[in-house]
Amino acid sequence: MDDCGGSQPACRASGVMDKARSPASTRAGGSQQRTPVVPLPLDAIPRATYRLQLHRDFTFADVIKLVPYLADLGISHVYCSPYLRARPGSLHGYDIVDHRTLNPEIGTSEDFQRMVETLARHGMNHVCDVVPNHMAIMGEDNAWWMDVLENGGSSAYAEFFDIDWEPQDAELRGKVLVPVLGDPYGAVLERGELALAFEPAHGTFAVRYFSHRFPLDPRTCAPLLVQCAVESCDVLDAEAMDELRAVSAALAALPARDETDGARVDERRRVAGECAIRLGALMKAHPALVSAVERVVARTNGIPGTASSFDSLHALLEAQAYRLAFWRVASDEINYRRFFDINELAGLRMENHAVFDATHRYVLEVAARGDIGALRIDHPDGLLDPARYFNRLQERYRELAIDFGTDDASLHGIYVVIEKIAASHERLPESWAVHGTTGYRFLNLVNGLYVDSRARSRLDRAWRAFVGDEAHTFEQACYRGRRAIAEGALASELAVLTSCALRIARADRGTRDFTFNSLREAIKEVAARFPVYRTYVDAEGGSKQDRRYVDWAVARARAKSRASDAAVFDFLHDILLGVAPPGAAPSTAQSVRQFAMRFQQFSAPVAAKGVEDTAFYTFNRFVSLNEVGGDPDQFGIGIRAFHGATADRAEVWPQTMLATSTHDNKRSEDVRARLDVISELPAAWRLTVRRFSRMNRSRKVIVDGQPAPSRNDEYLLYQTLLGTFPPYDIGASELDAYRERIERYMVKAAREAKVHTSWVAENRAYEDALTSFVGGILRGPAGTPFLADLRTQSELYAWFGMLNSVSMALLKVTSPGVPDIYQGNELLDWSLVDPDNRRAVDYDVRRTQLAQLTALAADVQPSKLNALFASPYDGLAKLWVIWRGLGLRRTYPALFARGDYRPVSITGARKEHLVAFARTHEKETIVVVAGRLFASLNIDVGALPVGDAWGDTTLDLAFMGARDGIDVLSGQAVAVARERVPASMICRTFPCALLHFPNTSGSRRTATK
Q1: Closest residue by Cα to residue 889 from 990, 796, 1006
Q2: Under the phi-then-psi rule, with left for phi > 0, alpha for psi from -120 to 50, and beta for the rest, what region is 516?
Q3: Is the pLDDT of residue 51 over 60?
């Protein structure tokens, strides 16, 4: 999921996730039986996707305008961010409040249908982003949540949200904690910020707190109506007074909200609704009653400065099915599951079929009609049982497809990818009814190919020498980050898990002496050491892979623990795998399974917040590797490893997405491509960062006894500047805009690091010092010594980074899988983490450039190709590669969707600077040749790695026999007449190659079905 801002500092999110598989690991999956994913016909598999962020300033109408351009680019599916009804003003759509309707800020149903029809006319469809794990609450726009607050456990939606109605705190039993207040409850109450109000439109009373509405249990409104009757007895006629008293009596007689009998619950809902209608009509007909109600409301609301005057309002609030609280209370006492630590996003119980149907029916009906071509599932690791959810998704889609008469769809199911983070040693369970992930595995794989692994120790020494005591290992950073989240932001979730473990322990005399504290410490340690986001133990147990990860985490936690009784880890090991003690009662066995599955919902956010949103901002050795789904300890990917991972993907997940930039990434693909050059020039980098620091040290100030910003934050800043600073002349206004972007980014990075400031406890002095430092060194004119030096350095990193970007783009559009382009990234884009990467995209520029390339394609000549690099940072070369590659995918869909994968052997002095592979389907063949580590080729800035730059490097194409083909990128003919073909011939005029060898024995084009 993406960054969702809340009204309180603690209400925020993180980037999240995805990764697919590792070729080196053993295949293993969960025990869940699979709803088979029948191979899809080619036209049901996205050929290429293009992610668009929809919101009030970019709507369905804007998508419609963009469709012709995307079709020309070669896109088959627009990949939409969530477009169901979300919190007003949402810029991301993940804060959904109603799964049954479209977001009116994005468009009407007619607008949506026009988009669908426009896509269809261009032979396209779209991917719908489904958000099953959570909903937005607070405010007043989530009808389900409002009903829960009003009716508590008797609400029709009480089981929709993952609420613990029987928490440890006796005062919260039967209630839900609502941590929404900006200050402690008493202070907020006595300032008069909580205000009772009558709502004529609803015929009900509610309490307001700024934009938040808190409905009242109808029974608790009866005393208010009694007071209103007393206030208006002299002005109402007898009939009206009788009606007012009758409504009051009916409310007082309502079944209590802890009622469990179905008929009584229905009676409560029916009578309360009737009373609201009657009361609204009564108020409308009798203005004198309105005045009486206003006086009762004013008296109840109290007078600021007179504490006792708020006793009535306090008593009224205490009688509700919720307890209003200071937002900081959430980490210790909250009793509903959240998305990570965001109070405003409440977890849904998707394992409940009623919840699934209520949240998915609209989307699946639209998909079954054919108006949605694919589904992207957000954050499935937050679900209790992801495998069962995926099964249900495909089953329900097929049922609806049959209802709509969509025979092919009912047979094959629908294309589904999931936002899943997997460690490099983790296998995505093959039993899952999905087609892959959203591409983070590929993102980190292909980026690693452009990192020189030989520089690891030198960059490590450079970082440690610069930051001193702030340096640490990545393992230490992950452990500290995870543990801090477990005992801080997610402490309440930890307490719930510990209570469950304690009940299990007390049920057996061999474990009954384990204490709450010892169990909590053990659970916390295991979560902090866990090698993956989560396991997938379900009602049928765990897989071999699950056992391996639990074994590892428990062993590490035991070895590092100072606990006096290590037996607690043996106990924890078994229940984490869902294994109950021998002879355990059925209720205990059920509790064990519940614990194991709940722990999995706990370990995932601990990892996401502790690693992605903490460790990645403190371990600043080489931040190109600090990416969602990445492992900075895996310093670079060799050519052999790249081939192994790609061949594995081609075999097992050939339809998975391939991402390089996403809405959740920490920095764009092109920033990473520039930063990767640092690994090729470690000595130059060390001198540069030292020089920068000397030039800027006078701009530091003392905060809390230490120079600010810290050396670690300063080190991050210099990497950020070399990855993003424009390598060309810029005016004052552009420099000002850039400076503001970097200032905002560095404050966000410092808060995520949680060392000198944080989202929960902002250190304004440190943040001001950081902002002042950034602003000072980036304030013009451009000729100042530091800016001049930065410009010179940025030209070096940007040139070789551009070559990296072009090469990466070629690998993405030709590798096994479905290439995805994040909005605007078909050109060079030097954006950082959200909200920086949510800025508006200039599509007029992109349309113009694609038109230029269309003209070039009509007559490809070396001089014209060189012109693509004349203005190297306009992104024309990258766009050319993407457009030509996607065009080939459109012409030969089977080759790319089902073609096999074959590494191409390379020899010569510069063999480590090229990666090549072939893909073949029914004798249709492509050979892809992409350069890497360009700075190490010893070519000058501005020079292209073509022709003689490749020296004696050759490619072994003997497996092809004698074939004639064409380089789709350069337009040159290629004849393979001997075993070894010189790289200088293949890359004669363009720095990479996409060779196409048609099937001359039959039809050149593969059928699309």
Answers
A1: 1006
A2: alpha
A3: yes
- Torsion over CA of 737, 738, 743 and 746, rounded to 10 degrees? 150
How close are the terminal C-alpha atoms of the chain, in Å? 34
Closest CA relative to residue 421, chosen from 665, 752, 61, 753: 665
Asked whether the beta carbons of 703 and 766 are under 8 A apart, the reply is: yes
Higher pLDDT among residues 782 and 37, named by residue: 782
Q: Mean pLDDT, to the nearest integer, of 57-67?
A: 98
Q: What is the pTM of this model?
A: 0.93
Specify the higher pLDDT residue, 120 or 36: 120
Helical (H) or strand (E) element with 955: strand 954-956
Domains contained in the chain, CATH given = 42-137+341-438 (3.20.20.80), 164-335 (no CATH), 447-455+624-797 (1.10.10.470), 473-617 (no CATH), 842-997 (2.60.40.1180)
pLDDT-derived band at 780 (thresholds 50, 70, 90) equals: confident
CB 495 within 8 A of CB 519: no
* Residue 675, phi then psi, degrees to nearest 5: -65, -30
Residues 810, 814, 820, 822: what is their CA dihedral angle, to the nearest 10 degrees? 10
Averaged pLDDT, 933-951: 95
Instruction: Give the residues across from 134 on adjacent strands.
Output: 347
Comparing 204 with 18, the larger pLDDT belongs to 204
Packing angle between helix 544-560 and helix 567-576, nearest 10 degrees?
Answer: 160
Q: Which amino acid is at 856?
A: L
pLDDT score, position 169: 87
Residue 347 three-state SS:
strand
Give the whole-angstrom CA distance, residue 790 versus residue 782. Answer: 10
Classify residue 203 as left (phi > 0), alpha (psi -120 to 50) or beta. left
Q: How far apart are CA 327 and CA 196, in angstroms?
A: 21
pLDDT, position 29: 42
β partners of residue 902:
918
DSSP run (H or E) holding 248: helix 238-252
- The DSSP code sequence of 138-172 is SSS--HHHHHHHHHGGGSTTTTTB-B-SS-SSGGG
What tokens does 306 get?
A: 């007179």
Helices (H), 449-566: 456-467, 474-487, 491-506, 516-529, 544-560
Q: Is the dihedral of CA 461, 24, 647, 419 positive or negative?
A: negative
- pLDDT tens, position by position, 263-273: 999 999 999 99
Contact between 531 and 553 (Cβ < 8 Å): yes
**Residues 363-378 pLDDT 10s:** 999 999 999 999 999 9
pLDDT averaged over the chain?
Answer: 92
Rounded Cα gap, residues 998 and 1009, in angstroms: 19
Buried b (16+ CB within 10 A) or exposed e, 593-628: bbbbbbbbbbbbbbbbbbbbbbbbbbbbbbbbbbbb
Q: Is the pLDDT of residue 33 over 80?
A: no
Distance of alpha carbon 592 from alpha carbon 574, whole angstroms: 9
Q: Cα–Cα distance between 317 and 180 in angstroms, integer?
A: 14
Rounded to 5°, the CA angle 116-133-25 comes to: 95
- Dmax (CA) of the chain: 108
pLDDT of 863 above 90: no
